[in-house]
Amino acid sequence: MAMILNEEQQAILNGSKGETMAKVMKTLVMYGETFGAERLVPVTSKYNHLVTSFGLKVMSPVYDLMAQILDAGVSSSQKFSVDPRPLDKNVPANFLQNLVFNKFMYTKQDFYEDQLEKLGLMNEDAFSCTCYMDEVGNKPQKGEVLSWAESSAVVYANSVLGARCNRNSGIIDLMGSIVGYVPEFGLLTDEGRKATWIVKIETTKKPEAQLLGSAIGMKVMEDVPYVVGLDKWIGNELDDSACTYLKDFGAATASNGAVGLYHIANLTPEAVELGESLIAEGAKEYVVTDAELERVKNEYPVIWKNKDATPKLCFMGCPHMSLQQLKDWTDKVEAGLKEAGNKKVLIPTVFTAAPGVLKEFEKTPYAARLKATGVITSYICPLMYMNNPLCKKMPVITSSNKLRTYTTARYYTDDEILAQITKGGKN
Amino acid sequence: MKTFQGRVVAPGQVTAKALVSHGGLNTLASFQNALQFGDKQAKCGDQNNPDLYGKPMVGTALCLPQTIGSTTGGLVLYCAAAMGRQPACMLFSKPIDSLAAAGAILADVWVDSVTMPVVDSLGEEFLNYVKDGMTITVKENGIVEVD
């Protein structure tokens, strides 16, 4: 079905703003028509968010396309945040790993960051997958239409903030922002935001956020789940603790499946407002029990060469940790070490968070306490670190189900991670 | 030979051997190694996909329900196409997802020298019928012949 464009949109498509802008518009129109969109609607958020933050040498087609856009004098009317930087000297890496990072992998990083600045990067600290945190400052309002990418940010914006955004791909995110319009389909529509799955939480304890998200993501794939019974464990208010839980839960639904929106009964804004009227007719059902979560966890493949290897590195913070998470983990690591009679973590451990969050954390007494435990803080994307083939061979542990999905890192629950880093695995 | 009718997302005509994924294709996890380290066969790197893990994807008729995972998916597909490491065609049993569609459209609009036909909505029966190594012919009108 052909989309109906207004006069301005049709003129751009016909080349009124040049050939490059016409191709950008053509891309968006084809994208919309594929999904039966009838029109383009204005992007209404203050800021955009892009997924591509890494100057990986082999991604040269992306930088060439960006260069075409810049050369044509086209820029985004919105400033934007972007996913985390890939490199940080604070994160442990040996000589050879650093050689691969700096000479073979991220050789275009400075070049690409220059492109981002010219296109409208919010500021030099605007590198995080958790752009919606107060310390980063890109937090859309309920009902606003976005042209974002980054699966964990999109699912958070849709579900927790009530904004409207499809699971856009990298590059499409930028194109929607440049034109100022996105095609209206899927999660931008009331119909597309209805749940086609009812997920019943029947566990005997609070489910691990990243494990529950993984189980639901693998089950419902791209569909919208309406989750019942989770408020029993995480409450009825979107306070800091609930938002942190949903950040990690959502990232796992989006990476282990393709969830772009979930509703949590009695908690997330649309579920509170509209209740079960959000559930589509004929919705399927999935019951999550302790045994089901155990089954899902046990089925994760372990692709370490030596499955019994001693972990060489631990990553926490994919997606980036919140300020409260950093504080809570400081307490937990200290207590774990004290209980085990240890002074420092037994495995090199990196906690990652947005630059703005880390700056705020540094202002608190927790920063010195965490440093004393030996834990390192960083702003990087652990996934981009793990892309190094020499890092890939290392036995790395994490409680991030997103990191597990995309890399060789091995998944453990938060409690298991704590035991590993403070007691060498003994509970 | 069996014939299936789908919807054309990116036009083109091609014949290639089938490579079948019964689970969602995680584009980033599947292609990132291949793109990053010069694997011209683009062997699938997705550990969670037992159907494809370790198998070359370049030049195959990639048969799948949908793609899943990171929103870099579309640009990863676009890069694969721009670098000549794309499948010969992509055949979806379900309606295409937004990330795969973005990749197919970006390749179609922005890459001059590459044709990667993409057909979706071929139905569950298509994915149940097709097996690795079968010969697949994609027609311009979205007809897919499996031999």
Please, could you describe this protein's structure?
- The complex is a heterodimer of chains A (427) and B (147).
- Chain A is an alpha/beta fold and 427 residues long.
- Chain A has three domains: 182 residues, Aconitase, domain 3 (2-Layer Sandwich); 107 residues, no CATH class; 111 residues, Aconitase, domain 3, CATH 3.30.499.
- Chain A is built from 19 helices and 13 strands.
- A five-stranded parallel sheet of chain A has the order 11-10-9-12-13. Chain A has a four-stranded parallel sheet with strand order 7-6-5-8.
- In chain A, strand 5, helix 8 and strand 6 form a beta-alpha-beta unit.
- The longest helix of chain A is centred in the last third of the chain and has 18 residues.
- Chain A is globular and about 70 Å long.
- With 147 residues, chain B is an alpha/beta fold.
- Chain B has a single domain, classed as Phosphohistidine domain (Glucose Oxidase, domain 1), CATH 3.50.30.10.
- In chain B, strands 1-10-9-3-5-7-8-2 form an eight-stranded mixed sheet.
- The relative contact order of chain B is 0.29.
- At the A-B interface, helix 2, helix 3 and helix 10 of A face helix 1, strand 6, helix 2 and helix 3 of B.
Biggest sheet descriptor of chain B: 8 strands, mixed
| Estimated share of beta-strand residues of chain B | 25-35%
Taking all Cα atoms into account, the compactness measure Rg of chain A is 22 Å
Q: How many strands of chain A?
A: 13
Low-confidence stretches of chain B: none
Whole-number count of domains of chain A: 3
CATH top level label of chain B = Alpha Beta
| Uncertain regions spanning at least 5 consecutive residues of chain A | none
Structural class of chain B: alpha/beta
Determine the CATH topology of chain B.
Glucose Oxidase, domain 1
Globally, the shape of chain B reads globular
